[in-house]
Write a structure and sequence with these properties.
Length: 267
Amino acid sequence: MASLFPVLIAAAHGSREARAQTETYELLAHVRALRPALRVETAFFDIHRPTVDEVVAALHGVPAIVVPLLLGTGFHFSVDLPALLGPARAAQPLAPHPLLIEALAHRLREAESRAGFPADAVVLAAAGSRRPGGNDSCRTAARDLGAALRGRRGAPVPVRPAVLCDGAADSLSLARTVADLRADGRTRIAVVPYLMASGRFSDRLGVEAGRAGCVITARPLGAQDAMARLVLARYDACAGLAGTEGGAGARVARWDVSGVSDTAGRR
């Protein structure tokens, strides 16, 4: 049965760095390969065009779901996106989700393989946010990744969140987090970026990880199978919800985010 929402619009951060854009396009190529019959369009929140509202307008009323390539409910999700939706619907951000944990664990395994030994502790490092609750996504992912690693290894592996943003609310710096782990006797500390793609934050993370004495540094999430399946899972969940709330004519996005109206995006 064909979906009532035949278009997936992937909404990404704009970046002036070509490698970040390349990783975004590679991820969406993977999404298209997994589901060739689905029309997948790329849109941006900032810097680059087309913007989300431009892509929605170009569809001329064809039902679409916008999947934000975001790891939390920050400014782009809670403020920018509702104003750009028009008749489209918005899926939830990519976190939290078991497939995200699978993707983080995959990047950790890659890095451990390159190093030649397993980590005895992990720092999950995000860009960070000064907004209240803006770092909750990273905290949740760190907890879930720790549970996943314990299940696979049969022994606890501490996973601690850290942020790169100066002055981020209620969070520790990478250096402080690593120092705390060393004080607990951990010596093979890995840093896993809680970042969608390479760029200035991943570059800064690599420098700070080296200074802190981390011996394993993973790659950002980027284009990998679990992330492509996660994008489709968010699309499918939103399409299924829409089908029970009015079908193709529905124009109301269900956000389940405190402070964001369920009618955001209605025009």
